[in-house]
Amino acid sequence: MQHRTLPDLIDVFIIGGGINGCGIARDAAGRGLSVVLAEQADLAQGTSSASTKLFHGGLRYLEYFEFRLVREALEERETLLTAMPHISWPMRFVLPLHPTMRFDTDTPASRLMARLLPWMKGRRPDWMIRLGLMMYDRMGGRRILPATRTLDLRQDPAGRALRPEFTKAFEYSDCWVQDSRLVVLNARDAALRGAHILTRTRVTSAVPEDGIWRIETSGPDGRSVHRARTLVNAGGPWVQNILHDVVREDRPTTIRLVRGSHIVTRRLFDHDRSYFFQGRDGRIIFAIPYEQDFTLIGTTDQDHTGTPSDARCSAAERDYLLAFASTYFARPLSAADVVWTYSGVRPLYDDGASSATAATRDYVLQLEHPGGAALLNVFGGKITTYRRLAESALTKLSPLYPGLRGNWTAGVPLPGGDFAHDGVPALIARLHATYPWLGADHAARLIRHYGTDSFALLGTAGSFADLGRDFGATLTEAEVRWLMRHEWAHTADDVVWRRTRLGLRLLPGQIAALGSWMQSE
User: Fold this and answer.
1) pTM, to two decimals
2) pLDDT digits (tens, 9 = 90+) for 215-225
3) If we measure between CA atoms, which residue out of 350, 334, 339 comes closest to residue 264?
4) In 207-348, which residue ranges form alpha helices assigned H by DSSP?
5) Buried b or exposed e, range 457-475, using 16+ CB within 10 angstroms
6) In order of start, what are the domains of the chain with their CATH numbers?
7) pLDDT digits (tens, 9 = 90+) for 131-168
């Protein structure tokens, strides 16, 4: 995509093309720093495309008394929503209640309840949940999102899909986000501001020499050497590997690899709200409307051994999610309902928690100077706080760059997001009016992926045939060329599983044909 000459001395060299790396690249480039980002595979190929796809405060983190993390995340929801209304939108969550449900959990809140109200014996009473939701509504300065309300599931449509014993629920607000598109659009904005994004490029070594990093890479154009003032290790679940194998630092493990698995089924309910289910084991899962015709259910929390790229949803995890959801849904679920599974490894900062579920979701930034060269290591984090993490990273680095511009990213649109937060219906109508031959579903999908850039993607096309080859499921040659030219797509998987989710609709033969065509191009 890029053909600009790399600078002789780079201000910030970033390892890792996930959400944290791309967020830092965008922020740094927007402050006028020269930036190079190297990703060993495709952007968002790891954890950042395998999330539950929510901008949320983390309601359950209140039980762990992680108030700063929850407040920061809640504050971010609406900041992010206004900057990317094409790929993020408000979503209401239905939390069913049942008076007899008890929970085997060891959170700080449950231990406090056990001391103060021992007769509750593991129950989360309605008032406790309502108190948590009241805090949730007020901690983040909510302006756009509606407040919590109580539902009568015997009357509300959300009750139809649930077992009849669930008669009451609370409904609260969070936001949905297309996670892998978030990563790519941050990378694209960084590139538009001068950053160099190198995909399929592995960093093989990084050595400090007289206060400057000498960095060797291996990529599509062979081996290269770069010099940089600061090295940022944003390798996600590979952060420890980078320290050991690239920087050659021998230190104790500081991250905990936790596998989160999800299943996707055919659509289980006929409304656009999500469910928040509480389990007897103290965990929670979501059941979320997904890609119009599906339901996304997740996530698990399992300590992960082995390499992060080997993460798969096991049969045991699949069955756990099916059984969990079946305690709520009127129609029990089975493996036959599952159309797809995915799994990602979260690199949580190892705070010594007794279980994967209890491990902190907060992030930790460590700045050190091995050999006199600046090294910033990024541990942990969650997708909702990626922008704040990037700001914190630049705050740590700012003494190294006198006169550096201050924070600037809050509310600044990502590419294609330069329209009102509630303007998607009007933008879809405008696209359809400009290209009346475009199907309604096709127009809606393009706006939800590319926003105002949809008009540039379609260009002067006067008919569907003008968009070139039809790969199926509304994917055309014009769109694939856009993804190859502007979004670093190289393979069929890049297109159908990370730039879009059309892999759910395309047949294996269609995906293979797409891959062959892309290779020929």
Assistant:
1) 0.94
2) 999 999 899 99
3) 339
4) 239-241, 315-326
5) bbeebeebeebeeebbbbb
6) 10-47+181-254+361-400 (3.50.50.60), 89-173+257-347 (3.30.9.10), 423-520 (1.10.8.870)
7) 888 888 888 778 899 999 999 999 999 999 999 999 99
